[in-house]
Amino acid sequence: MNPGLSSEALRKLAVDGYFGRVVARDMDGLMGNISPDATMAIPPLAIAFKGKEAIAAHFQEFLESYAPIDIDDFQTTADPENGTVAVRFHIALTSVADGSRTDMHNCNFFHCDAAGQIEKIVIYMSDLPTEGFAAGATRQKDHGER
Asked: What sequence ranges are listed for the domain SnoaL-like (predicted)?
């Protein structure tokens, strides 16, 4: 049980504190919302990022790989009792390398701690871009679905 955040606070943390900071390229703000021992798993790519440093390395590479990054059409479901929020959204990535555009409809699942920081992120993507996903990544066997 996680009585720390209301449904609205969980939604705001995910949509504004995470996605909004990615779009704004605000690394300090984004990482301020991530707990020190956070994990991020991307089961379709069979990769994970363990700890704030690895997640920061990933986002630095990701932001360098795509410009612009557009994220919209958010649909959220929050569970304040367990400190979780699920977000379905549209994301458009434009590759810095070749200008190609990738449009996806993805789902992210966030687990938050009582202090209001994100401690676990699980990402499912409708396409499998690999640019921007090497830094800080480790291969995973369990796909982070536990």
From this structure: 16-118
Q: Is the pTM of this model over 0.70?
A: yes
- Which residue in the block uniquely carries the two structure tokens 């396409």? 127
Q: How many angstroms separate the CA atoms of 35 and 112, rounded?
A: 9
Nearest Cα neighbor of 73 from 37, 106, 101 is 106
Query: Tokens standing for 104?
Result: 């996806």
The Cα 79–Cα 7 span in angstroms is: 6
**Among 12, 42, 47, which residue's Cα sits nearest to residue 118?**
12
> pLDDT tens, 51-98?
999 999 999 999 999 999 999 999 999 999 999 999 999 999 999 999
User: Using an 8 Å Cβ cutoff, are 6 and 14 in contact?
Assistant: no
C-alpha distances (whole Å) from 63 to each of 93, 95, 96, 102 are 10, 10, 9, 14
| b/e burial code for range 131-142 (CB count within 10 A of at least 16 → b) | bbbebbbeebee
Helix (H) or strand (E) holding 123: strand 118-124
CB atoms within 10 A of CB 89: 18
